Amino acid sequence: MKAVILAGGLGTRLSEETSVLPKPLVEIGSEPILWHIMKIFARHGVKDFIICCGYKGHLIKKYFQDFRVRGASVTFDLGTSAVTYLDPPEEDWRVTLVDTGLETMTGGRLRRIRHLLGNEPFFMTYGDGVGNIDITALMEFHQGHGKSATVTAVQPTGRFGAMYLEEDDPVVRTFNEKPNGDGTWISGGFFVLNPSIFPLLDGDETIWERGPMVQLTRQSELVAYRHYGFWHPMDTLRDKVVLNEMWSNQQAQWKVW
User: What are phi and psi of 154, to 5 degrees?
Assistant: First the structure.
């Protein structure tokens, strides 16, 4: 099975980093968040990736071009231009990088790589969120309901401390620094999609999260896989700090490999 990763956005809410890097290359620990996402999939045997590039996509291509040589012992024969690696590869991934345009929207990026996907279901996610998603269970769930699309639904932790007050009583009785969400489910960005979704993608301007997802909902063709475990996006500098603290403190719940 293939996993499509949308990695072409501008990442404007993380401009402290994305002025020089595409957001998927912003690091958690010593590796970009893109690597962490791919490790989650690879843990479940999904190792064939199609990465939809856009903003600063050449840097993502450069990352994979240098991927093998960075941690390997290697011999360069300057006379023949031969390169010999002395160590086995760290990963056995197949990675296809496609320039899907600078201004192309999420649905448009999917449409541009249609010819690479064949007629089988495929995974799709974004290059800026991690979680301990059970990819195997997600696919089994998708195959079990027979609909066109499955979205992983998550309940994110609240970003601010919550005070619980009784009416007409000014005394704070309970304070929770990191309360759970308000019970609302949101898209966690890990999808399984059938090729039947492609007629809903009209062109580069198509935003997957608007027209196509709304149409699938109206047709009762979008089903939610509820994920009760860890999930966290990297939307802002604060998110980057939180994820890096988890990683350095060995509390990275998305590290399933």
Answer: -130, 160
The CATH H-level superfamily of 2-248 is Spore Coat Polysaccharide Biosynthesis Protein SpsA; Chain A (3.90.550.10)
- Measure the CA–CA gap between 196 and 152, rounded to whole angstroms: 19
pLDDT value of residue 159:
64
| Model confidence, pTM | 0.91
Full DSSP string of 87-122: S--S---EEEEEE--SS--HHHHHHHTGGGSTTS-E
Domain residue ranges in the chain = 2-248
Model confidence pLDDT, tens digit, residues 145-169: 999 999 999 998 776 666 666 777 7
Q: Which tens digits make up the pLDDT trace of 197-224?
A: 999 999 999 999 999 999 999 999 999 9
Q: Which amino acid is at 167?
A: E
Q: Among candidates 155, 171, 154, which has minimal Cα distance to 163?
A: 171
CA distance 97 to 2: 13
